[in-house]
Amino acid sequence: MNRVVRFHETGGPEVLHLEEAPLPEPGPGEVLIRTRALGLNRAESMFRLGQYGIDPVFPSGIGYEAAGVVEALGDGVSGLSVGDAVSLVPSFAMTDYAVHGEAVLAPAHAVVTHPERLSFEEAASVWMQFITAYGGLVDLAGVRPGDTVLISAASSSVGLAAIQIAHKAGARAVALTRTSAKRQQLLDAGADEVIATAEEDLPARVRELTDGQGARVIFDAVGGTALADLVTAAAHEAHLILYGLLDRAPAPLNVGEVLFKHLTIRGFELFEITTDDRRRAEAVAFVTDGLAKGELTPTVDKTFPLEDIAEAHRYLEAGGQVGKIVVTVPTS
């Protein structure tokens, strides 16, 4: 038998349970993975709450990210071998493949052999955040040397990844955080500057940092009422990439600033990259190169044992983490 994380109704972390399930067998194009670590994301929390882009089908599994060892291969799978240490690129619906469990199936296109220097906990903390940051900053905004990049929710795993990717591209990373409580941690994580948006005048600080020019790239996970200040802080012909909705309040928008600054405001989600074979391959190559060179390093904030999956979700929703929350899976 095999334990998997399931829920039978939407709701808080308490709806999550570990349940026994038969060991699955991989079909054509599928890989069976014995997991060692599971990565948590806001997407799982939203899915569990019924606030995600797709609705769960009960009883529902959950989970986009995992790392472990290949246990079996389905017909037609090439480039992988039993015993390989692998991790998963989120490129499938959780209603098709849910990977938070002890032994899980995944489509072969989502399975990546990660650099050997990574632990399983680190490997479970790579693909969602680094490809999200890559997609917004590199693929869409074309970040380049000399750019100033504003990164909201900077202490999240995606925010920390964006700081590193901005640096890899030769840009300056300005971390945005609500209060100054995480200022030193963000500086230690590589941010060139930190702006506490509830304590400082964001547009004025950005003008100071850019000699009055504004930021050419803005990578925002918040939306809501803060969007107005981001538009004001934007440079002429800036790219404002919206990849999250932490604040669901209506977003004010100064249309005049958008018009006369020639701004590009673009909604973005990871699956634009990961469900396109060419763009996914380019993203994986970019991130793998950065990992191998030490330019990109995942940050694990805290780990929880699989038995404490509900508590891990509570910790995620409290929002105090700096980096990735990981659930560890015992070896049998």
From TrEMBL:
GO MF assignments: NADPH binding; oxidoreductase activity, acting on NAD(P)H
SMART domains: PKS_ER
Transmembrane spans: none
Chain coiled-coil ranges: none
Superkingdom to which the source organism belongs: Bacteria
Residue intervals of the Enoyl reductase (ER) domain: 11-327
InterPro entries named among the record's database cross-references: ADH-like_C, ADH-like_N, ER, GroES-like_sf, NAD(P)-bd_dom_sf
Keywords for this protein: NADP, Oxidoreductase
Protein name per UniProt: NADPH:quinone reductase
Organism: Streptomyces melanosporofaciens
Classification lineage: Bacteria, Bacillati, Actinomycetota, Actinomycetes, Kitasatosporales
